[in-house]
């Protein structure tokens, strides 16, 4: 619970900094990064990140993950982060960073997971 209190305090500081210094100021970015770190720390402490199937992020993730599997199979190649982000932007899908966040895995682990799920040899 301590981490949640810290996040709330920093969120207030962040809101004040946005009003006082602007959205793109160095001070605002610095506070925002601290909030992000604490949020990531919190989610790591609960060890699993689950979203209800009916949630927007859960739905977007499912659609994006299925499409990632489809293009991997279709191209016989798992896309690089840059390739996926370009494709995702053109098709209104989650970015590589968002997929990694929801999965709690880095891109190489997601690649291995998808290849294992497809049960095929992908380059």
Description:
This protein is mainly α and 123 residues long. It is built from six helices and no strands. It is elongated and about 50 Å long. The protein starts with a helix and ends in a 5-residue tail after the last helix. The relative contact order is 0.09. The model has no long low-confidence stretch (mean pLDDT 84).
Continuous helix count: 6
Estimated helix fraction:
over 70%
Shape: elongated
- State Rg: 18 Å
Please mark out the parts with pLDDT under 50 across 5 or more consecutive residues, or reply none: none
End-to-end Cα distance = 45 Å
- Taken as a percent bin, the fraction of beta residues is under 5%
Task: Please state the average pLDDT score.
Answer: 84
The count of strands amounts to 0
**N-to-C series of helices and strands:** HHHHHH
Class from secondary-structure proportions: mainly alpha
* Biggest β-sheet description: none
Compose a concise summary of this entry.
With 123 residues, the protein is an all-alpha fold.
Descriptors:
123 residues; mainly alpha
Topology:
Layout: H1 2-21, H2 26-46, H3 56-75, H4 81-90, H5 96-103, H6 107-118
